Amino acid sequence: MNISVVKSPEGIEGSGFFATSLAKVIGLARKNSIWPLPFATSCCGIEFMATMASHYDMARFGAERNSFSPRQADLLMVMGTIAKKMAIPLRQVYEQMAEPKWVIAVGACASSGGIFDTYSVLQGIDEIIPVDVYVPGCPPRPEQILDGFMKIQELVGKESLRRRNSEEYAKIQERYHIEG
Ligand code: SF4
């Protein structure tokens, strides 16, 4: 069996020592211990179940600890059709999550409303909350969900510790009427 060990961040090393920056160590720790909150409303949620099960095994990425409490979650994974009535609790869940937090829209419905171009369905969750990664497909296969998750890991690993205090982030918050 091939077991790959997480690579250490860039730094200077020699016999008996390794020096790097605090931001890189925090990025490394965060990206390999993401706690997802699955917000699954329909068929894409079933693909997520397969992604968590033994064959695809999201635990390999340090993300086996699903959190059903927004206050103990880093990554909101929205999977399925979001009816406009569900937009209110979805937004509430997002607001209850502590910073830093990330969002992934899994599948066509969460990303754009999918085939449900109708008055009762939200045409993409980015109408109400900011999204970091979109996973296409109806439904996306578990490989695609894992690929989207790995993109989130890249973002998390590289994110500056100060991004949440940045002007760019303040603009996103303003656009979505999020109180800091
Ligand atoms: S994108 Fe397709 S599979 Fe996913 S929830 Fe919508 S209809 Fe179902």
Sequence-ordered SSE layout with sheet pairings:
Layout: E1 12-14, E2 17-19, H1 22-31, E3 36-40, H2 43-52, E4 75-79, H3 84-96, E5 102-106, H4 107-112, E6 133-135, H5 142-158, H6 167-175
Parallel strand pairs: 3-4, 4-5, 5-6
Antiparallel strand pairs: 1-2
Helix pairs in contact: 1-5, 2-5
- Uncertain stretches: none
Main sheet? 4 strands, parallel
Cα end-to-end separation: 47 Å
Identify the strand order in the major beta sheet.
3-4-5-6
What's the helical proportion of residues? 25-40%
- CATH architecture of the domain at 34-150, by name, is 3-Layer(aba) Sandwich
Structural class: alpha/beta
Write down the secondary-structure element order: EEHEHEHEHEHH
CATH topology grouping of the domain at 34-150 = Rossmann fold
Mean pLDDT, all residues: 93
Count of helical stretches: 6
Structure overview:
There is one protein chain. The strands form two sheets. This protein has a four-stranded parallel sheet. It is an alpha/beta fold and 180 residues long. It has helices at 22-31, 43-52, 84-96, 107-112, 142-158, 167-175, and strands at residues 12-14, 17-19, 36-40, 75-79, 102-106, 133-135. It binds iron/sulfur cluster. Iron/sulfur cluster (SF4) binds at residues 42-44, 80-81, 107-109, 114, 138-139.
